[in-house]
Amino acid sequence: MADWHTIIRERDFPMIEQAECDGRPVIYLDNAATTQCARPVLWALENYWRSQHANVYRGVYCLSRRAEAAVEETRQICAEFLGAASAGEIVFTGGATQSANLLADAFALTELKPGDLVLSTEMEHHSNLLPWREACRRTGAELALVPVTEEGELDLDALDRLLERRPKLLAVCAVSNVLGTVNPLREIADRAHAAGCAVAVDAAQAMRCCLPGVRELDCDFLYFSSHKVMGPTGVGVLYGSEAWLERLTPPRTGGGMVSAIREDTVLYERGPLKFEAGTPNLAGIAGLGAALEYLQAVGRRRIAKREKALLQYAEKRLRELPGLRILGAPKQRAGVLSFVAPPLQAYDIAMLLDSQGIAVRSGSHCAIPLHRRLGLSGSVRVSPAFYNTAEELDALTVALRRSLEGAKKAGVPVGENARG
After folding, report:
1. What is the rounded average pLDDT of the residues 324-332?
2. How many whole angstroms from its chain centre is CA 214?
3. How far is residue 40's CA from residue 292's CA, in Å, rounded to a whole number?
4. Are 37 and 232 in contact (CB under 8 A)?
5. pLDDT at 408 over 90
6. Backbone phi and psi for residue 322, each to the nearest 5 degrees, phi listed first
7. Domains (range + CATH), the chain
8. Exposed/middle/buried for 109, CB within 10 Å: 0-12, 13-18, 19+?
9. Sequential DSSP letters for 326-367
10. Nearest to residue 134, comparing CAs of 101, 157, 165, 111?
11. Average pLDDT over residues 284-307
């Protein structure tokens, strides 16, 4: 009898089983960028276009009510998935990047003034760094970064020193998209709140590794993207506590978010609708709801356990290769494993792997400050999901060994500059 993983892979992820490029099968190991859609998500998208497609809110006819019910059902699913107090704390956006920008713009309008301090970290994805940098530039506030240690952990002593300056907000990732570092979010939130600092969590890389709920984390904001949890692209979530959503001014205006307009005042809707100007990505929201229900049905702990085992196996196999340096040595790693093999460029390694049917990521991974801290311009990133297999990681190891040995035969001194 097939094990649960084989059933999941063959039944629920047609792309994984059928993917081919230039006539050869593809081993997909770029899940930190985008996961494949589960079959129930494809069904939900088809069902939306077949039976739910109409604009939402204030439509009194049947199709509009049906579409609105689907949106609010997904809002409730998201609230339960995140452990939020209510569905009224869930704002739908175009993804984690749009969530961070929405929040940073709202903070710039409502909270920041010249001389204020905002904190982020050296390990952030640009999407959780540049919005805050721009918000500080516009308001005259200062942005400071919590440094990263040699092991790839956040320097919490340095964080404490920065918190003595009473910053307004700390924007921090749950999991580094380069090193896989799992940050101690509750400890960080406790320290930040003691200094009167709000906490915004970029959870884009953490939603499949059994992240605790937002109330357990005690964060003020959290955001993630659908396409990293087996859902469609173009939709995401911004969680904000009810008190913060009430306090902030929406930076985008338009239809659907206003309850009344008078000559000199505008009354905004309460809760999430206040931040959802315009028509949302209704099909994407339906797909997101199906994706989160799918993860719950499969079992989030089971998924996290399998992905942890695959990542540990990948690290064990890659450490067998001479000349290859794995980045970071965090106490807890999840989701991703990045490496270099100097003097080969990351792009060249990824291209050599692609020629053997293996899809990985190369470059700075939208984390230039972290790579600069590591003395690198880029790296190769491997990110297995629970539908991947140990055999695929074996194939990655064989392909890498073949590529590195081929480079050496061609006179490239692979590994002579590697360290760690």
Report:
1. 97
2. 15
3. 10
4. yes
5. no
6. -65, 140
7. 4-30+301-409 (3.90.1150.10), 41-296 (3.40.640.10)
8. middle
9. E----SSB-S-EEEEBTTB-HHHHHHHHHTTTEE-EEE-TT-
10. 101
11. 96
Hey, which residues are catalytic here? Answer: 366
What separation in angstroms does the CA of 301 have from each of 74, 212, 217, 311, 388? 21, 11, 17, 15, 16
> Is 310:290 a contact under the CB 8 Å cutoff?
no
Alpha-carbon distance of 55 to 135, in angstroms, equals: 33
pLDDT digit string (tens) for 154-211? 999 999 999 999 999 999 999 999 999 999 999 999 999 999 999 999 999 999 987 9
Residue type, 189: A
Question: Is a pLDDT exceeding 50 seen at residue 420?
Answer: no
The first and second tokens of residue 415, run together, are 């590994």
Closest CA to 292 of 226, 351, 363, 241: 226
Residue found by looking up tokens 């919005």 in the block: 131
Q: What pLDDT sits at residue 4?
A: 66
Three-state DSSP class for residue 245: helix
Task: Yes or no: say if 382 and 396 are a contact pair by the CB < 8 Å rule.
Answer: yes
Q: What mean pLDDT is predicted for residues 397-418?
A: 81
Each residue's pLDDT tens digit, 343-364: 999 999 999 999 999 999 999 9
Number of alpha carbons in the 13 Å side-chain half-sphere of residue 120 = 25
